[in-house]
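Illustration 12: Zinc finger, CCHC domain containing 4.
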Amino acid sequence: MSKIMDDAVDSGGIEVIIQNEEDKTAPRCPHGPALLFEKTGNGEEKGRRFYACSACRDRKDCNFFQWADEKISEARMLIRYCHFVSLPLEQRRFCVDCQLLILPEERATHAKHKALSEDTTVQRLKRPSLLLCPLDNKKSNAQYLFADRSCHFLLDMLLGLGFQKILCVGTPRLHEVIKLRNMKGKSPKMKSLLLDIDYRYCQFYGQDEFCRYNMFNHHFFDDEEAVTFFQGFLREEEGAKVVMITDPPFGGLVKPLANSFSQMAITWKNQNKVSNAGQMPMIWIFPYFFESRILECFPSFSMLDYQVDYDNHPLYKHGKTGRKQSPVRLFTNLSPKDIILPEDEGYRFCSVCERYVSAGNKHCPKCDTCPSKDGREWRHCDECGRCVKPSWRHCSSCGHCALPDHPCGQSQTGCFNCGSQKHKLRTCPKKHNKRMIVPGGRGAPGLLKHIAGKSTTKNKRRRTVT
Ligand SMILES: C[S@@+](CC[C@H](N)C(=O)[O-])C[C@H]1O[C@@H](n2cnc3c(N)ncnc32)[C@H](O)[C@@H]1O
Ligand SMILES: [Zn+2]
Ligand SMILES: [Zn+2]
Ligand SMILES: [Zn+2]
Ligand SMILES: [Zn+2]
Ligand SMILES: [Zn+2]
Ligand SMILES: [Zn+2]
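Figure caption equivalent — predicted structure in C-alpha cell form:
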C-alpha cells in the first residue's frame, strides 16, 4: 500500500495535517499514532487523506498506510450490516460492482450496476467468501480460497486434535466453514476469530468474530478494543485449546510474518501463564520452497506433505494430465505423527519418519528420510549423496544433479548444497543437515536471497515447474 505514498510524493506532493492532540482516532503503527497526510498537487486523488507512520519516511522502515476514508467506511459497514440483516429476505440485494450489501434506499445509486438476486444473496450470506469476489491484487495479496476438500480436511484435523478455539489469520473460508458447522448444531462447538486485512468482511461479521488486522506488522486497525478481544480469545478457559492457522499471501516476506506470529505466541503465553517450554500451536500454510526460511524462524516447525488445494488458483486448475500438484504445504509445531493425512488421496504413514507422506514419497534408506518435497518420487544420486527430483540428471561437468537443459558450466563455483566458496558439495559439512537442502535450487543462501528479494510472485510460482 505504501507504494501509494511514493506515488503521492512523485505526483505533486503531500502535506501533513496537524490534528488536535486529543484526537485519538488516528490509527497506530508500531511507532505510535500515525500522522494524517493530504495529497496536494493536481493528481486524480487530490485532497484525499491518508495515515502513514509518524516516525519513518522510508517505507522500508515502516510500511504502515491507510486511507482516511477507508476507516470511516469501515465503521459504516458494520452499521449497514446490522440494518441489512434486519430487512425482510426479499429486500436483500448485493451489488457485485461495489461488493456491497445494498439497502433499499440505496438501490437507485446502484441501478446500473450488476446485482445478485435476493435468492442468491440470502443463500450466500452465510458464505461471504462465495459472495465477495476474491481480491486479485497482482502484488501480494491475491486471495486464494481453499477448495472444499482442503477446507474440510483442515476443519476435521483441528477437531480431531481437540482444538475448540481457532484463530483464523487470513483464512476467511475456514472461519466461515466453522461458523456453518456451529449453525448446524454440531458438537463440540468451535469458536473462531478471523483476523484479515480485507475490510469487506466487516459487512458480515461483528467485532467478536472479525478484526481487521495486518499480519505483516501485527497491527490491529481498531486499536485497543480489538486487541483486548484478541487477548481474551487466546485465553484457554475451561480447557478450550487454541490453535492459530494462517494462510498468508505468498508474495509476503517470511520474517515480518514470523515476527507477527511470534508476537501472537507471546500474547498466548501471557494469557495462559504457560511455562517457557509451552508453545502456542500454530499451522502456517505456505509453498514448500519456503521451508528453510520458515524453519530458520521457527526451528521447532516441520513441513507436512499435505498439498493444499485452492478454488481459484491459476496454477492448480485440473489440466489435461490430471490434477496439477499444489506446491502449498502445512508448516506446524504440532507433532507430524498426529496429523493423519487422507488415505484416499494416497497419503500413507512412514513408520521410520513417523509422519504421513505423499504416495510418491518413497523412503530412502541412504538419506534416512522420505525426501520428496513436491510429491513426486525422487531418486537417490550416489554422486551427490542425496535424493533429487526425478527430472534431474547428474552432470559430471557441474559435479551435481540438474535439469538436462541447465546452463552447464555456468556460475558453478562453490558448494551446491550450502553456497560456500571454500568447498564442493562432496565435502560439504552441512550435507546431512536437511534444513540446508532447498529442492530445485542451488545453494540455499543464494536461492533464499532471490526469493526474499526482488523476485516477483510470478517468479516464485514459476519455480515449481521443474
Ligand atoms: C492466500 S489468501 C488465503 C485465503 C484462505 N486460503 C481461505 O480460503 O480462507 C490470503 C488471505 O490473507 C489476507 N491478507 C492479505 N494481506 C494481508 C495482511 N497484510 N494482513 C492480514 N491479512 C492479509 C487476504 O485478504 C486473504 O484473505
Ligand atoms: Zn511506523
Ligand atoms: Zn453498486
Ligand atoms: Zn520415511
Ligand atoms: Zn536418498
Ligand atoms: Zn547427482
Ligand atoms: Zn552441467
